[in-house]
């Protein structure tokens, strides 16, 4: 009987483990939950919360979707998470890369209107690209009306910070599963107490959700710093007049689990 030399057996084990990592990740990329139509958030769409250095929570926070951390590893505070926690793996790092790509693509779009110096509170806007040279403030209610284009996009290009006052809100009218709401934040986003925001925050630095603040039909993503939460609700699922966006499938959950297990196995083989 022909036997395989030990060195080749070791090589074959490495190939098998690499395949075990590659296949689930491919499933994750191609089987990602539907998100915003244009541009695609790709794999980052599966994460309701995604931090770079850390994700921290205080209180009874509820997350509908996955929590991810990369390249950092720290997740503290718990809460209710319907997806799972993915810390410093190829999955969470790829999601960070995809979020960065989405940020660059949207921030480079030509503005429809320059709102620099204006408070978003009290405005009713139609789909378009809205620019702030530096900081953006929301005090009160902002209405985003998709009636003229149910599959349209709202892109907010914010040069530095996004800050909302307590009890501020965003109301979406006549949106759909193909609607887009993205907040490109040049530094950090801070949502005031009980703020109800719609859409995905892509912040270069950090995202802070103060007590009772919520993000619906979107995500809180920090690309170099931390996401900090305090008794919040963050959901990738749309509500109100929007058509619900499906949450991550069971196949995605399996993919993340397999990828993590394969990574551990690969590390053990490298040591052997």
Residue stretches low in confidence (pLDDT < 50, at least 5 long) are: 1-38, 243-269
Give average pLDDT, whole number: 81
Helix segment tally: 3
Order of helices and strands: HEEEEEEEHEEEEEEEEEEEEEEEEEH
CA-CA gap between termini: 26 Å
As a percent range, the share of strand residues is 25-35%
**In terms of structural class, how would the helical and strand content be classed?**
alpha/beta
What strand order characterises the main sheet? 7-4-1-22-19-16-13-10-8
Annotation, overall tally of beta strands: 24
Overall shape: globular
Number of domains: 2
Largest sheet: 9 strands, parallel
Radius of gyration using CA atoms only: 20 Å
Can you describe what's shown?
With 272 residues, the protein is an alpha/beta fold. The chain has 2 domains: 1-31 and 249-272; 37-247, no CATH class. It has 3 helices and 24 strands. The chain has helices spanning 6-30, 90-107, 250-271; strands spanning 47-51, 54-58, 62-64, 66-69, 74-76, 80-81, 84-87, 113-114, 124-125, 128-132, 136-138, 141-145, 153-158, 162-164, 169-173, 180-185, 189-191, 196-198, 200-203, 207-209, 214-216, 220-222, 226-230, 233-235. The strands form 4 sheets. It has a 9-stranded parallel β-sheet with strand order 7-4-1-22-19-16-13-10-8, with helices on one face. Strands 5-2-23-20-17-14-11 form a 7-stranded parallel β-sheet, with no helix packed on it. The chain has a 5-stranded parallel β-sheet with strand order 6-3-24-21-18, with no helix packed on it. The longest helix has 25 residues, at 6-30. The chain is globular and about 40 Å long.
């Amino acid at each position: 009987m022909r036997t395989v030399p030990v060195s080749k057996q070791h090589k074959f084990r490495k190939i098998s483990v690499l395949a075990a990592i590659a296949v689930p990740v491919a499933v994750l990329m191609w089987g990602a939950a539907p998100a915003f139509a244009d541009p695609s958030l790709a794999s980052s769409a599966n994460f309701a919360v995604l931090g770079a250095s850390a994700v921290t929570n205080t209180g009874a926070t509820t997350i509908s979707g996955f929590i991810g951390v990369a390249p950092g590893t720290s997740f503290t505070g718990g809460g209710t998470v319907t997806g799972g926690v993915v810390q410093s793996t190829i999955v969470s790092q790829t999601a960070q890369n995809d979020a960065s790509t989405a940020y660059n693509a949207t921030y480079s779009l030509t503005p429809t209107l320059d709102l620099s110096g204006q408070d978003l509170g009290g405005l009713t806007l139609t789909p378009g690209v809205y620019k702030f040279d530096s900081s953006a403030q929301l005090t009160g209610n902002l209405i985003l009306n998709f009636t003229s284009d149910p599959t349209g996009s709202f892109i907010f290009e914010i040069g530095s910070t996004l800050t909302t006052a307590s009890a501020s809100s965003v109301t979406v009218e006549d949106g759909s599963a193909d609607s887009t709401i993205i907040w490109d934040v040049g530094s950090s986003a801070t949502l005031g107490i009980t703020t109800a925001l719609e859409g995905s925050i892509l912040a270069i630095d950090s995202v802070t959700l103060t007590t009772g603040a919520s993000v619906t039909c979107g995500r809180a993503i920090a690309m170099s710093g931390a996401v900090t939460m305090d008794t919040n609700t963050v959901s990738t699922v749309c509500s109100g007049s929007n058509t619900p966006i499906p949450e991550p499938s069971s196949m995605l959950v399996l993919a993340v689990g397999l990828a993590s297990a394969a990574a551990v196995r690969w590390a053990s083989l490298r040591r052997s």
